[in-house]
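Take one protein record:
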Amino acid sequence: MKKSVIRMSALSIGISLVCTSVAAHAQETEAKKFDAVTVTGTRVESESPVASTTLITREEIARLKPASLQELLRGRAGVNIYNQGGAGKLSGLSMRGMGTSHYVLMVDGVKVGNVTSGLSMIHDIPVSQIERVEIVRGPMSSLYGSEAMSGVIQIFTRRGNKAFSPTVSVGLGTKDTQRIHAGFTGKQGRADYAVNAAYSHTGGINACNGDAVTFQGCGANEPDTDGYKNGSVSLSGGYDFSDAWRAEANVMSIDAENFYDGWFNHSRVQQQVAGAKLRYAPSKAFSLTATVGRNRDRSRNYHDTVFMNDVNTQRDQASVQADIALAGTLSIGYDWMRDSVDSTTAFSMLSRYSRAVFAQWVGERGPNHFQAGVRHEDNSQFGSAFTGNVGYAYDINASLRLRVNYGTAFRAPSFNDLYYPGANNPDLKPERSKSAELGVEGQHGWGHWSVSAYENRLRDLIIFDPTKSSVSSPWGQPDNVQIAKIRGIELEVGTDLAGWDLTGAMTWLDPRNRTPGAQYGNLLNRRSRLTGRVDADKTLGQFRVGASVNGAGARYDDPNNRVRLAGYATADARLAWMPSSRITVQFTATNVFDKKYETSAWYNQAGRGWMLDFTWAP
Protein backbone atom coordinates (compact mmCIF):
# COMPACT_ATOMS: atom_id res chain seq x y z
CA MET A 1 0.00 0.00 0.00
CA LYS A 2 2.70 2.51 1.03
CA LYS A 3 4.90 1.61 -1.95
CA SER A 4 1.96 2.11 -4.29
CA VAL A 5 1.25 5.53 -2.80
CA ILE A 6 4.92 6.50 -3.10
CA ARG A 7 5.07 5.48 -6.76
CA MET A 8 1.90 7.35 -7.66
CA SER A 9 3.10 10.35 -5.65
CA ALA A 10 6.31 10.36 -7.70
CA LEU A 11 4.25 10.39 -10.87
CA SER A 12 2.10 13.22 -9.49
CA ILE A 13 5.19 15.24 -8.61
CA GLY A 14 6.59 14.70 -12.11
CA ILE A 15 3.46 16.05 -13.74
CA SER A 16 3.27 18.89 -11.23
CA LEU A 17 6.83 19.91 -12.09
CA VAL A 18 5.88 20.02 -15.76
CA CYS A 19 2.87 22.21 -14.88
CA THR A 20 5.01 24.49 -12.69
CA SER A 21 7.58 24.92 -15.46
CA VAL A 22 4.80 25.68 -17.91
CA ALA A 23 3.26 28.28 -15.61
CA ALA A 24 6.61 29.96 -15.13
CA HIS A 25 6.85 30.58 -18.86
CA ALA A 26 3.23 31.70 -19.28
CA GLN A 27 3.93 35.44 -19.36
CA GLU A 28 7.18 35.22 -21.33
CA THR A 29 6.05 33.83 -24.65
CA GLU A 30 3.70 34.75 -27.42
CA ALA A 31 0.28 33.09 -27.44
CA LYS A 32 -0.88 31.09 -30.45
CA LYS A 33 -4.27 30.00 -31.82
CA PHE A 34 -6.19 26.86 -30.84
CA ASP A 35 -5.36 25.40 -34.24
CA ALA A 36 -5.24 21.57 -34.13
CA VAL A 37 -7.61 20.39 -36.89
CA THR A 38 -9.75 17.39 -35.86
CA VAL A 39 -12.98 15.87 -37.18
CA THR A 40 -14.21 13.30 -34.64
CA GLY A 41 -15.79 15.71 -32.15
CA THR A 42 -17.98 17.42 -34.77
CA ARG A 43 -18.04 15.13 -37.89
CA VAL A 44 -16.64 18.12 -39.79
CA GLU A 45 -13.15 19.61 -39.86
CA SER A 46 -12.77 21.91 -36.86
CA GLU A 47 -9.94 23.94 -35.38
CA SER A 48 -11.87 24.69 -32.21
CA PRO A 49 -13.71 21.63 -30.86
CA VAL A 50 -15.76 22.37 -27.76
CA ALA A 51 -15.47 18.76 -26.54
CA SER A 52 -12.36 17.54 -24.67
CA THR A 53 -10.07 16.24 -27.40
CA THR A 54 -6.62 14.64 -27.49
CA LEU A 55 -4.67 14.21 -30.75
CA ILE A 56 -1.88 11.62 -31.09
CA THR A 57 0.19 12.20 -34.23
CA ARG A 58 2.30 9.89 -36.38
CA GLU A 59 5.40 11.71 -35.14
CA GLU A 60 4.56 10.86 -31.54
CA ILE A 61 3.87 7.22 -32.41
CA ALA A 62 7.22 6.95 -34.23
CA ARG A 63 9.04 8.52 -31.28
CA LEU A 64 7.44 6.32 -28.58
CA LYS A 65 7.56 3.07 -30.61
CA PRO A 66 4.74 1.44 -28.60
CA ALA A 67 4.31 -2.31 -29.06
CA SER A 68 0.50 -2.08 -29.13
CA LEU A 69 -2.42 0.30 -29.29
CA GLN A 70 -3.22 -0.17 -25.59
CA GLU A 71 0.39 0.75 -24.77
CA LEU A 72 -0.03 3.94 -26.80
CA LEU A 73 -3.32 4.85 -25.07
CA ARG A 74 -2.61 3.87 -21.46
CA GLY A 75 -2.35 6.73 -19.01
CA ARG A 76 -3.96 9.25 -21.38
CA ALA A 77 -6.44 11.66 -19.84
CA GLY A 78 -9.63 9.82 -18.91
CA VAL A 79 -8.36 6.39 -20.03
CA ASN A 80 -8.22 3.24 -17.87
CA ILE A 81 -6.98 -0.01 -19.42
CA TYR A 82 -6.79 -3.58 -18.16
CA ASN A 83 -5.05 -6.45 -19.95
CA GLN A 84 -5.29 -10.20 -19.45
CA GLY A 85 -1.83 -11.59 -20.02
CA GLY A 86 0.34 -9.52 -22.34
CA ALA A 87 0.59 -9.02 -26.10
CA GLY A 88 -2.55 -9.85 -28.07
CA LYS A 89 -4.55 -10.82 -24.99
CA LEU A 90 -7.97 -9.37 -24.22
CA SER A 91 -7.72 -5.71 -23.23
CA GLY A 92 -10.56 -3.59 -21.92
CA LEU A 93 -10.57 0.20 -22.20
CA SER A 94 -12.68 2.46 -20.00
CA MET A 95 -13.11 6.20 -20.60
CA ARG A 96 -14.12 8.55 -17.80
CA GLY A 97 -14.94 5.63 -15.52
CA MET A 98 -17.62 4.09 -17.72
CA GLY A 99 -17.69 0.52 -18.98
CA THR A 100 -15.46 -1.11 -21.57
CA SER A 101 -18.35 -1.16 -24.06
CA HIS A 102 -19.39 2.46 -23.39
CA TYR A 103 -17.21 4.08 -26.04
CA VAL A 104 -17.07 3.94 -29.83
CA LEU A 105 -13.94 2.82 -31.68
CA MET A 106 -13.71 3.89 -35.31
CA VAL A 107 -11.20 3.19 -38.07
CA ASP A 108 -11.28 5.71 -40.93
CA GLY A 109 -14.88 6.61 -40.17
CA VAL A 110 -16.11 3.00 -39.83
CA LYS A 111 -17.52 1.90 -36.47
CA VAL A 112 -15.79 -1.31 -35.34
CA GLY A 113 -16.41 -3.78 -32.53
CA ASN A 114 -17.51 -7.30 -31.72
CA VAL A 115 -21.29 -7.51 -32.05
CA THR A 116 -21.71 -10.44 -29.63
CA SER A 117 -19.58 -9.21 -26.71
CA GLY A 118 -19.94 -5.48 -27.38
CA LEU A 119 -16.17 -5.01 -26.96
CA SER A 120 -13.69 -3.33 -29.29
CA MET A 121 -10.65 -5.52 -29.98
CA ILE A 122 -8.02 -2.81 -29.51
CA HIS A 123 -5.33 -5.43 -28.78
CA ASP A 124 -5.35 -6.61 -32.42
CA ILE A 125 -4.99 -3.24 -34.18
CA PRO A 126 -1.31 -2.69 -35.14
CA VAL A 127 0.13 0.75 -34.40
CA SER A 128 2.35 0.56 -37.50
CA GLN A 129 -0.75 1.13 -39.64
CA ILE A 130 -1.85 4.26 -37.75
CA GLU A 131 -1.35 7.81 -39.01
CA ARG A 132 -3.05 9.55 -36.09
CA VAL A 133 -5.52 8.96 -33.25
CA GLU A 134 -8.24 11.36 -32.10
CA ILE A 135 -9.68 10.82 -28.61
CA VAL A 136 -12.90 12.72 -27.83
CA ARG A 137 -14.13 12.44 -24.24
CA GLY A 138 -17.73 12.98 -23.25
CA PRO A 139 -21.17 11.87 -24.51
CA MET A 140 -21.19 11.57 -28.31
CA SER A 141 -24.39 9.59 -28.99
CA SER A 142 -25.98 12.60 -30.69
CA LEU A 143 -23.36 12.16 -33.45
CA TYR A 144 -22.49 8.45 -33.30
CA GLY A 145 -25.42 6.67 -31.66
CA SER A 146 -25.15 3.62 -29.45
CA GLU A 147 -22.09 3.06 -27.22
CA ALA A 148 -20.79 6.63 -27.45
CA MET A 149 -21.56 7.27 -23.77
CA SER A 150 -18.03 8.13 -22.65
CA GLY A 151 -16.53 9.23 -25.94
CA VAL A 152 -15.07 8.19 -29.28
CA ILE A 153 -11.61 6.99 -30.27
CA GLN A 154 -11.00 7.28 -34.00
CA ILE A 155 -7.98 5.75 -35.74
CA PHE A 156 -6.85 7.13 -39.07
CA THR A 157 -4.64 4.83 -41.13
CA ARG A 158 -1.77 6.12 -43.24
CA ARG A 159 -2.60 8.30 -46.23
CA GLY A 160 -0.76 9.74 -49.20
CA ASN A 161 -0.52 13.54 -49.12
CA LYS A 162 2.82 14.29 -50.79
CA ALA A 163 5.33 12.76 -53.19
CA PHE A 164 6.07 9.03 -53.27
CA SER A 165 7.35 8.04 -49.81
CA PRO A 166 8.43 4.49 -48.96
CA THR A 167 9.00 3.21 -45.43
CA VAL A 168 10.64 0.05 -44.13
CA SER A 169 11.02 -0.82 -40.45
CA VAL A 170 12.47 -3.97 -38.87
CA GLY A 171 12.66 -4.77 -35.16
CA LEU A 172 13.98 -7.52 -32.88
CA GLY A 173 13.55 -7.89 -29.14
CA THR A 174 13.14 -10.04 -26.06
CA LYS A 175 10.71 -12.96 -25.87
CA ASP A 176 11.59 -13.79 -29.48
CA THR A 177 9.81 -10.63 -30.57
CA GLN A 178 10.00 -9.68 -34.24
CA ARG A 179 8.19 -6.98 -36.15
CA ILE A 180 8.43 -5.63 -39.66
CA HIS A 181 6.56 -2.93 -41.53
CA ALA A 182 6.87 -1.95 -45.19
CA GLY A 183 4.81 0.38 -47.29
CA PHE A 184 4.57 3.49 -49.36
CA THR A 185 2.31 6.51 -49.71
CA GLY A 186 2.11 9.14 -52.39
CA LYS A 187 0.19 11.72 -54.35
CA GLN A 188 0.26 12.04 -58.14
CA GLY A 189 -1.84 14.74 -59.77
CA ARG A 190 -5.42 14.30 -58.57
CA ALA A 191 -4.80 10.83 -57.10
CA ASP A 192 -3.41 9.79 -53.71
CA TYR A 193 -2.59 6.28 -52.50
CA ALA A 194 -1.15 4.28 -49.61
CA VAL A 195 -0.14 0.63 -49.29
CA ASN A 196 1.19 -0.77 -46.01
CA ALA A 197 1.84 -4.25 -44.64
CA ALA A 198 3.04 -5.34 -41.21
CA TYR A 199 3.88 -8.50 -39.30
CA SER A 200 4.70 -9.03 -35.64
CA HIS A 201 5.40 -12.04 -33.47
CA THR A 202 6.25 -12.59 -29.83
CA GLY A 203 6.84 -15.69 -27.77
CA GLY A 204 4.87 -14.03 -24.99
CA ILE A 205 4.69 -14.73 -21.27
CA ASN A 206 2.63 -17.05 -19.09
CA ALA A 207 -0.70 -15.24 -19.43
CA CYS A 208 -2.52 -16.47 -16.34
CA ASN A 209 -1.89 -17.98 -12.90
CA GLY A 210 -5.37 -19.47 -12.71
CA ASP A 211 -6.70 -22.07 -10.33
CA ALA A 212 -8.38 -25.14 -11.84
CA VAL A 213 -9.96 -26.10 -8.49
CA THR A 214 -11.60 -22.81 -7.49
CA PHE A 215 -11.91 -21.59 -11.12
CA GLN A 216 -10.23 -18.31 -10.20
CA GLY A 217 -8.92 -16.21 -13.06
CA CYS A 218 -8.81 -18.23 -16.28
CA GLY A 219 -9.87 -21.38 -14.39
CA ALA A 220 -6.76 -23.30 -15.43
CA ASN A 221 -3.16 -23.78 -14.37
CA GLU A 222 -1.07 -23.86 -17.56
CA PRO A 223 2.47 -22.60 -16.76
CA ASP A 224 3.64 -21.99 -20.32
CA THR A 225 4.47 -19.10 -22.61
CA ASP A 226 1.52 -17.75 -24.58
CA GLY A 227 2.62 -16.31 -27.89
CA TYR A 228 0.94 -14.01 -30.37
CA LYS A 229 1.21 -13.37 -34.12
CA ASN A 230 -0.32 -10.52 -36.10
CA GLY A 231 -0.23 -9.85 -39.86
CA SER A 232 -1.98 -6.85 -41.37
CA VAL A 233 -2.45 -5.01 -44.65
CA SER A 234 -4.00 -1.59 -45.24
CA LEU A 235 -4.81 0.05 -48.57
CA SER A 236 -6.27 3.45 -49.30
CA GLY A 237 -6.77 5.63 -52.31
CA GLY A 238 -8.54 8.83 -53.33
CA TYR A 239 -9.22 10.76 -56.50
CA ASP A 240 -10.34 14.36 -57.08
CA PHE A 241 -12.47 14.22 -60.21
CA SER A 242 -12.82 18.00 -60.04
CA ASP A 243 -12.73 20.77 -57.48
CA ALA A 244 -16.23 19.68 -56.42
CA TRP A 245 -16.11 15.87 -56.60
CA ARG A 246 -13.88 13.51 -54.60
CA ALA A 247 -14.02 9.75 -54.04
CA GLU A 248 -11.91 7.67 -51.68
CA ALA A 249 -11.78 4.13 -50.32
CA ASN A 250 -9.82 2.22 -47.70
CA VAL A 251 -9.48 -1.30 -46.35
CA MET A 252 -7.55 -2.82 -43.44
CA SER A 253 -7.31 -6.57 -42.89
CA ILE A 254 -5.82 -8.21 -39.78
CA ASP A 255 -5.08 -11.91 -39.24
CA ALA A 256 -3.92 -12.86 -35.76
CA GLU A 257 -3.15 -16.06 -33.88
CA ASN A 258 -3.30 -15.96 -30.11
CA PHE A 259 -2.34 -18.46 -27.38
CA TYR A 260 -3.57 -18.02 -23.81
CA ASP A 261 -4.77 -20.07 -20.82
CA GLY A 262 -8.15 -21.56 -19.95
CA TRP A 263 -10.78 -23.84 -21.45
CA PHE A 264 -10.31 -21.92 -24.69
CA ASN A 265 -6.55 -21.41 -25.04
CA HIS A 266 -5.95 -20.82 -28.74
CA SER A 267 -7.71 -18.53 -31.22
CA ARG A 268 -7.39 -17.49 -34.82
CA VAL A 269 -8.80 -14.02 -35.29
CA GLN A 270 -9.68 -11.99 -38.35
CA GLN A 271 -10.67 -8.32 -38.39
CA GLN A 272 -11.56 -6.48 -41.56
CA VAL A 273 -12.53 -2.83 -41.94
CA ALA A 274 -13.53 -1.39 -45.31
CA GLY A 275 -15.04 1.95 -46.23
CA ALA A 276 -15.76 4.23 -49.17
CA LYS A 277 -16.71 7.89 -49.38
CA LEU A 278 -18.07 10.17 -52.11
CA ARG A 279 -18.09 13.93 -51.49
CA TYR A 280 -19.67 16.71 -53.53
CA ALA A 281 -18.68 20.25 -52.50
CA PRO A 282 -19.60 22.78 -55.21
CA SER A 283 -18.75 25.67 -52.88
CA LYS A 284 -17.54 26.46 -49.37
CA ALA A 285 -21.18 26.99 -48.40
CA PHE A 286 -22.39 23.44 -49.09
CA SER A 287 -21.14 19.86 -49.22
CA LEU A 288 -22.82 16.47 -49.43
CA THR A 289 -21.03 13.30 -48.29
CA ALA A 290 -22.12 9.68 -48.69
CA THR A 291 -20.23 6.86 -46.96
CA VAL A 292 -20.51 3.08 -46.69
CA GLY A 293 -18.55 0.75 -44.44
CA ARG A 294 -18.21 -2.80 -43.18
CA ASN A 295 -16.47 -4.30 -40.15
CA ARG A 296 -16.04 -8.06 -39.76
CA ASP A 297 -14.78 -9.69 -36.60
CA ARG A 298 -14.24 -13.46 -36.65
CA SER A 299 -12.80 -15.69 -33.92
CA ARG A 300 -12.23 -19.45 -34.29
CA ASN A 301 -11.53 -20.86 -30.85
CA TYR A 302 -9.73 -24.05 -29.81
CA HIS A 303 -8.64 -25.99 -26.75
CA ASP A 304 -5.10 -26.88 -27.76
CA THR A 305 -5.83 -28.26 -31.27
CA VAL A 306 -9.47 -29.25 -30.69
CA PHE A 307 -11.97 -26.92 -32.38
CA MET A 308 -14.48 -25.42 -29.91
CA ASN A 309 -16.52 -22.75 -31.68
CA ASP A 310 -16.62 -20.09 -34.39
CA VAL A 311 -18.06 -16.61 -33.86
CA ASN A 312 -18.31 -14.39 -36.94
CA THR A 313 -19.90 -10.95 -36.55
CA GLN A 314 -20.48 -8.26 -39.13
CA ARG A 315 -21.43 -4.60 -38.94
CA ASP A 316 -22.63 -2.92 -42.15
CA GLN A 317 -23.18 0.83 -42.13
CA ALA A 318 -23.99 3.75 -44.39
CA SER A 319 -24.61 7.46 -43.96
CA VAL A 320 -25.46 10.62 -45.85
CA GLN A 321 -24.49 14.01 -44.42
CA ALA A 322 -25.11 17.52 -45.70
CA ASP A 323 -23.01 20.40 -44.34
CA ILE A 324 -24.45 23.88 -44.86
CA ALA A 325 -22.84 27.23 -44.06
CA LEU A 326 -25.45 28.85 -41.82
CA ALA A 327 -23.88 31.33 -39.41
CA GLY A 328 -21.44 28.51 -38.80
CA THR A 329 -21.91 24.93 -40.04
CA LEU A 330 -25.22 23.09 -39.92
CA SER A 331 -24.88 19.34 -40.45
CA ILE A 332 -27.93 17.20 -41.21
CA GLY A 333 -27.61 13.48 -41.77
CA TYR A 334 -28.99 9.97 -41.87
CA ASP A 335 -27.19 6.88 -40.47
CA TRP A 336 -28.04 3.24 -41.09
CA MET A 337 -26.41 0.19 -39.50
CA ARG A 338 -27.01 -3.56 -39.48
CA ASP A 339 -25.42 -5.96 -36.98
CA SER A 340 -25.39 -9.68 -37.78
CA VAL A 341 -23.98 -12.89 -36.29
CA ASP A 342 -22.95 -16.18 -37.90
CA SER A 343 -21.84 -18.60 -35.19
CA THR A 344 -21.70 -22.25 -34.24
CA THR A 345 -23.40 -21.04 -31.03
CA ALA A 346 -27.16 -21.05 -31.62
CA PHE A 347 -28.18 -17.43 -30.94
CA SER A 348 -31.96 -16.99 -30.91
CA MET A 349 -31.68 -13.90 -33.15
CA LEU A 350 -29.01 -13.34 -35.80
CA SER A 351 -29.42 -9.72 -36.89
CA ARG A 352 -30.77 -6.30 -36.02
CA TYR A 353 -30.64 -2.86 -37.60
CA SER A 354 -30.86 0.76 -36.62
CA ARG A 355 -31.77 3.94 -38.48
CA ALA A 356 -31.10 7.45 -37.24
CA VAL A 357 -31.45 11.07 -38.24
CA PHE A 358 -29.28 13.74 -36.67
CA ALA A 359 -28.63 17.45 -36.82
CA GLN A 360 -25.79 19.50 -35.42
CA TRP A 361 -24.81 23.14 -35.52
CA VAL A 362 -21.29 24.42 -34.85
CA GLY A 363 -20.57 28.13 -34.87
CA GLU A 364 -18.65 31.00 -33.32
CA ARG A 365 -19.20 34.66 -32.65
CA GLY A 366 -16.05 36.47 -31.67
CA PRO A 367 -14.75 34.79 -28.51
CA ASN A 368 -17.88 32.57 -28.23
CA HIS A 369 -17.96 29.02 -29.61
CA PHE A 370 -21.11 26.90 -29.82
CA GLN A 371 -22.02 23.30 -30.53
CA ALA A 372 -25.48 21.72 -30.28
CA GLY A 373 -26.84 18.47 -31.65
CA VAL A 374 -29.82 16.12 -31.53
CA ARG A 375 -30.35 12.57 -32.74
CA HIS A 376 -33.32 10.23 -33.03
CA GLU A 377 -32.45 6.57 -33.46
CA ASP A 378 -34.81 3.70 -34.19
CA ASN A 379 -33.56 0.21 -33.31
CA SER A 380 -35.32 -2.93 -34.48
CA GLN A 381 -34.73 -4.60 -31.12
CA PHE A 382 -35.74 -2.02 -28.48
CA GLY A 383 -37.40 0.87 -30.32
CA SER A 384 -36.34 4.50 -30.35
CA ALA A 385 -33.77 6.55 -28.47
CA PHE A 386 -33.42 10.33 -28.39
CA THR A 387 -30.12 11.96 -27.43
CA GLY A 388 -28.68 15.46 -27.50
CA ASN A 389 -25.72 17.60 -26.54
CA VAL A 390 -24.90 21.27 -26.03
CA GLY A 391 -21.47 22.83 -25.66
CA TYR A 392 -20.15 26.33 -25.18
CA ALA A 393 -16.63 27.73 -25.05
CA TYR A 394 -15.49 31.26 -24.30
CA ASP A 395 -12.06 32.66 -25.18
CA ILE A 396 -11.06 34.67 -22.13
CA ASN A 397 -8.10 35.94 -24.15
CA ALA A 398 -6.03 34.77 -27.11
CA SER A 399 -4.53 31.88 -25.16
CA LEU A 400 -7.15 30.90 -22.54
CA ARG A 401 -10.50 29.18 -23.08
CA LEU A 402 -13.36 28.12 -20.78
CA ARG A 403 -15.56 25.17 -21.83
CA VAL A 404 -18.95 23.81 -20.69
CA ASN A 405 -20.58 20.64 -22.08
CA TYR A 406 -23.73 18.64 -21.34
CA GLY A 407 -25.10 15.59 -23.15
CA THR A 408 -27.18 12.45 -23.00
CA ALA A 409 -26.17 9.08 -24.45
CA PHE A 410 -27.15 5.42 -24.63
CA ARG A 411 -25.85 1.93 -25.36
CA ALA A 412 -27.85 -0.84 -26.99
CA PRO A 413 -27.50 -4.26 -25.27
CA SER A 414 -25.07 -6.66 -26.97
CA PHE A 415 -26.12 -9.87 -28.72
CA ASN A 416 -24.74 -11.87 -25.77
CA ASP A 417 -27.01 -9.91 -23.42
CA LEU A 418 -30.05 -10.33 -25.64
CA TYR A 419 -29.75 -13.69 -27.36
CA TYR A 420 -26.98 -15.91 -25.91
CA PRO A 421 -28.55 -19.36 -25.30
CA GLY A 422 -29.26 -20.09 -21.65
CA ALA A 423 -28.30 -16.64 -20.33
CA ASN A 424 -30.23 -13.99 -22.25
CA ASN A 425 -32.92 -11.38 -21.80
CA PRO A 426 -34.54 -10.10 -25.03
CA ASP A 427 -36.51 -7.50 -23.02
CA LEU A 428 -33.46 -5.48 -21.99
CA LYS A 429 -33.62 -1.72 -22.37
CA PRO A 430 -30.67 0.39 -23.54
CA GLU A 431 -28.27 1.72 -20.91
CA ARG A 432 -28.49 5.52 -20.57
CA SER A 433 -26.38 8.37 -19.23
CA LYS A 434 -26.38 12.10 -18.52
CA SER A 435 -23.03 13.88 -18.39
CA ALA A 436 -21.84 17.40 -17.56
CA GLU A 437 -18.35 18.88 -17.89
CA LEU A 438 -16.56 22.11 -17.01
CA GLY A 439 -13.09 22.73 -18.40
CA VAL A 440 -10.43 25.35 -18.99
CA GLU A 441 -7.51 25.13 -21.40
CA GLY A 442 -4.59 27.20 -22.55
CA GLN A 443 -2.56 27.31 -25.75
CA HIS A 444 0.64 29.34 -25.62
CA GLY A 445 3.93 29.71 -27.35
CA TRP A 446 5.52 27.43 -24.76
CA GLY A 447 2.88 24.69 -25.14
CA HIS A 448 -0.60 23.75 -24.00
CA TRP A 449 -2.54 22.59 -20.96
CA SER A 450 -6.11 21.69 -20.01
CA VAL A 451 -8.11 20.79 -16.90
CA SER A 452 -11.58 19.23 -17.03
CA ALA A 453 -14.01 18.25 -14.28
CA TYR A 454 -17.03 16.10 -15.06
CA GLU A 455 -19.89 14.07 -13.63
CA ASN A 456 -21.58 11.10 -15.31
CA ARG A 457 -24.88 9.63 -14.11
CA LEU A 458 -25.79 6.22 -15.50
CA ARG A 459 -28.96 4.17 -15.20
CA ASP A 460 -30.33 0.86 -16.47
CA LEU A 461 -26.83 -0.60 -16.51
CA ILE A 462 -26.86 -4.27 -17.39
CA ILE A 463 -25.55 -6.91 -14.98
CA PHE A 464 -26.18 -10.64 -14.67
CA ASP A 465 -28.84 -11.38 -12.05
CA PRO A 466 -28.78 -15.05 -10.86
CA THR A 467 -32.15 -14.60 -9.11
CA LYS A 468 -33.97 -13.57 -12.29
CA SER A 469 -34.87 -16.54 -14.48
CA SER A 470 -37.03 -17.54 -17.42
CA VAL A 471 -37.82 -20.68 -19.40
CA SER A 472 -34.92 -19.98 -21.78
CA SER A 473 -32.57 -18.85 -18.96
CA PRO A 474 -33.38 -20.96 -15.87
CA TRP A 475 -30.18 -20.09 -13.95
CA GLY A 476 -30.34 -16.31 -14.25
CA GLN A 477 -30.20 -13.64 -16.90
CA PRO A 478 -28.99 -10.08 -17.54
CA ASP A 479 -31.16 -7.25 -16.25
CA ASN A 480 -31.25 -3.42 -16.21
CA VAL A 481 -30.71 -2.92 -12.49
CA GLN A 482 -27.52 -0.97 -11.87
CA ILE A 483 -27.14 2.77 -11.24
CA ALA A 484 -23.80 4.59 -11.07
CA LYS A 485 -22.42 8.08 -10.53
CA ILE A 486 -18.91 8.94 -11.68
CA ARG A 487 -16.94 12.08 -10.96
CA GLY A 488 -13.52 12.89 -12.30
CA ILE A 489 -10.85 15.49 -13.02
CA GLU A 490 -8.46 15.31 -15.98
CA LEU A 491 -5.22 17.18 -16.56
CA GLU A 492 -3.14 17.41 -19.74
CA VAL A 493 -0.01 19.47 -20.28
CA GLY A 494 2.73 19.74 -22.87
CA THR A 495 5.72 22.06 -23.24
CA ASP A 496 9.27 22.44 -24.49
CA LEU A 497 11.61 23.00 -21.53
CA ALA A 498 15.38 23.35 -22.00
CA GLY A 499 15.15 21.39 -25.24
CA TRP A 500 13.05 18.63 -23.69
CA ASP A 501 9.67 17.84 -25.25
CA LEU A 502 7.53 17.16 -22.15
CA THR A 503 3.95 15.89 -22.07
CA GLY A 504 1.91 14.70 -19.14
CA ALA A 505 -1.59 13.52 -18.31
CA MET A 506 -3.33 12.64 -15.07
CA THR A 507 -6.85 11.50 -14.17
CA TRP A 508 -8.53 11.37 -10.77
CA LEU A 509 -11.69 9.29 -10.70
CA ASP A 510 -14.48 8.48 -8.25
CA PRO A 511 -16.64 5.79 -9.94
CA ARG A 512 -19.37 4.74 -7.52
CA ASN A 513 -22.08 2.12 -7.66
CA ARG A 514 -25.38 3.78 -6.63
CA THR A 515 -27.57 0.69 -6.91
CA PRO A 516 -29.55 0.09 -3.68
CA GLY A 517 -28.28 -3.04 -1.97
CA ALA A 518 -25.08 -4.64 -0.74
CA GLN A 519 -22.86 -2.95 -3.37
CA TYR A 520 -24.14 0.59 -2.83
CA GLY A 521 -21.20 2.98 -2.55
CA ASN A 522 -18.65 0.47 -3.87
CA LEU A 523 -16.12 1.50 -6.48
CA LEU A 524 -16.84 0.20 -9.97
CA ASN A 525 -14.43 -2.63 -10.69
CA ARG A 526 -11.27 -2.46 -12.82
CA ARG A 527 -11.02 1.34 -12.64
CA SER A 528 -8.02 2.92 -10.94
CA ARG A 529 -8.92 6.12 -9.12
CA LEU A 530 -5.64 7.73 -10.16
CA THR A 531 -3.83 7.20 -13.47
CA GLY A 532 -1.20 9.15 -15.34
CA ARG A 533 1.78 9.26 -17.64
CA VAL A 534 4.75 11.49 -18.38
CA ASP A 535 6.75 11.42 -21.63
CA ALA A 536 10.05 13.28 -22.05
CA ASP A 537 12.23 13.41 -25.17
CA LYS A 538 15.22 15.47 -26.27
CA THR A 539 17.23 15.63 -29.49
CA LEU A 540 21.00 15.97 -29.25
CA GLY A 541 22.48 16.24 -32.74
CA GLN A 542 22.12 12.83 -34.35
CA PHE A 543 20.71 11.31 -31.16
CA ARG A 544 17.36 11.45 -29.39
CA VAL A 545 16.86 10.30 -25.80
CA GLY A 546 13.58 9.79 -24.04
CA ALA A 547 11.73 8.20 -21.15
CA SER A 548 8.14 7.50 -20.15
CA VAL A 549 6.54 6.81 -16.78
CA ASN A 550 3.08 5.22 -16.60
CA GLY A 551 1.21 4.70 -13.36
CA ALA A 552 -2.12 3.63 -11.94
CA GLY A 553 -3.44 3.54 -8.41
CA ALA A 554 -5.07 0.55 -6.74
CA ARG A 555 -8.25 -0.90 -8.21
CA TYR A 556 -10.77 -3.58 -7.31
CA ASP A 557 -11.21 -6.49 -9.69
CA ASP A 558 -14.69 -7.40 -8.47
CA PRO A 559 -17.93 -5.43 -7.89
CA ASN A 560 -17.95 -6.47 -4.21
CA ASN A 561 -14.59 -4.68 -3.68
CA ARG A 562 -12.95 -7.72 -2.10
CA VAL A 563 -10.20 -8.45 -4.65
CA ARG A 564 -7.82 -5.50 -4.53
CA LEU A 565 -5.03 -5.01 -7.06
CA ALA A 566 -2.15 -2.81 -5.89
CA GLY A 567 -1.17 0.35 -7.70
CA TYR A 568 1.98 0.47 -9.80
CA ALA A 569 4.27 2.65 -11.87
CA THR A 570 6.48 1.48 -14.74
CA ALA A 571 9.28 3.26 -16.59
CA ASP A 572 10.43 2.96 -20.19
CA ALA A 573 13.57 4.41 -21.78
CA ARG A 574 14.58 4.94 -25.41
CA LEU A 575 17.64 6.00 -27.36
CA ALA A 576 17.54 6.77 -31.08
CA TRP A 577 20.41 7.34 -33.50
CA MET A 578 19.62 9.26 -36.69
CA PRO A 579 22.73 9.17 -38.92
CA SER A 580 20.71 10.82 -41.70
CA SER A 581 17.23 12.19 -42.29
CA ARG A 582 16.31 8.85 -43.86
CA ILE A 583 17.52 6.38 -41.22
CA THR A 584 16.60 5.89 -37.56
CA VAL A 585 17.95 3.19 -35.27
CA GLN A 586 16.12 3.08 -31.93
CA PHE A 587 16.67 1.03 -28.79
CA THR A 588 13.67 0.88 -26.43
CA ALA A 589 13.69 -0.64 -22.94
CA THR A 590 10.29 -1.31 -21.35
CA ASN A 591 9.46 -1.79 -17.68
CA VAL A 592 13.13 -1.14 -16.91
CA PHE A 593 12.72 -1.80 -13.17
CA ASP A 594 11.00 -5.15 -13.87
CA LYS A 595 7.87 -4.22 -11.94
CA LYS A 596 5.50 -7.12 -11.19
CA TYR A 597 1.85 -6.02 -11.32
CA GLU A 598 -1.64 -6.99 -12.46
CA THR A 599 -4.38 -4.95 -14.13
CA SER A 600 -6.78 -7.90 -14.04
CA ALA A 601 -6.63 -10.40 -11.19
CA TRP A 602 -4.62 -13.60 -11.85
CA TYR A 603 -3.32 -12.29 -15.19
CA ASN A 604 0.38 -11.48 -15.60
CA GLN A 605 2.05 -8.49 -17.23
CA ALA A 606 5.37 -8.48 -19.07
CA GLY A 607 8.52 -7.79 -17.09
CA ARG A 608 11.65 -6.04 -18.31
CA GLY A 609 12.13 -6.14 -22.08
CA TRP A 610 13.93 -4.44 -24.93
CA MET A 611 13.45 -3.78 -28.63
CA LEU A 612 15.84 -2.66 -31.37
CA ASP A 613 14.21 -1.05 -34.43
CA PHE A 614 15.76 0.01 -37.73
CA THR A 615 13.67 2.40 -39.87
CA TRP A 616 14.37 3.65 -43.39
CA ALA A 617 11.97 6.43 -44.41
CA PRO A 618 13.26 8.70 -47.16
The first strand starts at residue 52 and ends at 56.
